[in-house]
Amino acid sequence: MSAADPAPTSLTASRVEPGEGAALPTLGELRHEIDRIDADMHALLIERGQIIDTLVKVKQAAGTEGGSAFRPAREAAMMRRLADRHRGRLPLDTVEGIWRVIISTFTYVQAPYAVHADLATGEAAMRDTARFHFGFTVPFEAHMGAAGVVAAVAASKGDLGLVPAFSSAAHGAWWTGLEPAAAPKIIARLPFVERADHPAGLPVFCIAHPVADAAVTEVEVWSVHVAGWSANAARAVAPLADVIAVPDRGLDGAALLVSVPVAGVGAGGLEKILAALRAAGASVRSAALVGSHASRYTHAGKP
Ligand SMILES: C=C(O[C@@H]1C=C(C(=O)O)C=C[C@H]1O)C(=O)O
């Protein structure tokens, strides 16, 4: 501590936020408070790490470790609570980014994993998304095309893959690679907290080998193959579910990725969607469950 920065005693709340007409604290006093808070936050992160050390032992004892340590249901719930309780000067974007890095890195130190991402749609946006959600300590591996991401995750024990959760002609029906029972599955949809001005708002599905005790089934994602695909069929399913369609012109059909809420508003199960397709003249050739994730959660954004 320099002579220009004396060590004052801790400030009372009334001096940190003085009322109208009250004497302002000195810059030195306020910086001392900032240093105290930084040391407390750092100590709390170290303590969080100690809890994780014990959590690893508990998971080992329960036999629930191995594979990915990523628990998307828990993370979705934590991120919703964080967004809902946030207030004050620090932007929500920053708070969300800090906690994504904290949680993803603590997941990594439990069981190392890499994040494989499909850069084919837009390298900058996908890299921003991967780094925002998983930080810089978790290794990042770039792929050109979603099929490469699916293959890399399939060959790994606990790696995660990021693929676009939006229609893109360039991608083909990558999700058909998730149909075999032993293939990776969709386990999350990011960002967990959506808003119009999200700084890393590219909608992505996170794929991984699913962990038995970790599935979130609020929204099911189905790979559906239809014959007789048409604009009429597309219009019939649009109000019922989020659908990504890749038409197969040779066969007059399409491969669809259909997200179906399991409960609540919009629920009705896959059957309702298949019935709407049939009523619109399409015939359903197959339907395979390729994953599930937490309900989408939208935050109002800046107050
Ligand atoms: C700590 C756990 O493992 C992971 C890390 C988390 C964290 O650091 O908060 C939360 C969920 C998991 O993805 C857990 O399973 O609770």
TrEMBL record:
<keyword id="KW-0413">Isomerase</keyword>
<dbReference type="InterPro" id="IPR036263">
    <property type="entry name" value="Chorismate_II_sf"/>
</dbReference>
<feature type="domain" description="Chorismate mutase">
    <location>
        <begin position="21"/>
        <end position="114"/>
    </location>
</feature>
<dbReference type="InterPro" id="IPR002701">
    <property type="entry name" value="CM_II_prokaryot"/>
</dbReference>
<dbReference type="Pfam" id="PF01817">
    <property type="entry name" value="CM_2"/>
</dbReference>
<dbReference type="InterPro" id="IPR036979">
    <property type="entry name" value="CM_dom_sf"/>
</dbReference>
<dbReference type="GO" id="GO:0004106">
    <property type="term" value="F:chorismate mutase activity"/>
</dbReference>
<protein>
    <recommendedName>
        <fullName>chorismate mutase</fullName>
        <ecNumber>5.4.99.5</ecNumber>
    </recommendedName>
</protein>
